[in-house]
Input
Amino acid sequence: MGEPLNPRYRLYHPKWHRTRIPIFWWLRSFAYIKFISRELTSLFVAYAGLLLLIEVSVLARGEAAYGRFLAWLQSPAVLALNAFVLLALLFHTFTWLNLAPRALVLRVGKRRVPDALVLVAHYSAWIAASALLAWLILRR
Output
């Protein structure tokens, strides 16, 4: 194929004009603040998972290492951090479970299962799983 008819022709368009949006655009509405806060709490979920993996790793190293780890966990700064993490995890859990009826559309026959029933089922499963874990941990 020969030369293009227009020598300034480019295969792709230049960037389209987009209005600038400030980085804190989400502070304009409470709904946005709640959404971004829930998304940021996923970092605390990752922290809790990582802390659990570290605890298992330290436990495998022996009783002395685990004792030092428990002493570190009982320091005031770590206790304060973990209290904040607990609040963040509870916020994450409640907001996540409240999204379930919107994200999960269940049908029985041709009728849709009411949102309240989906919500109650999710909260019931969460409470049952928490009770089972508490029983397994505290029974010894």
Summary: Helices lie at 30-40, 42-60, 63-73, 76-103, 115-138. The chain has a mean pLDDT of 90. The beta strands are 107-108, 111-112. The radius of gyration is 25 Å.
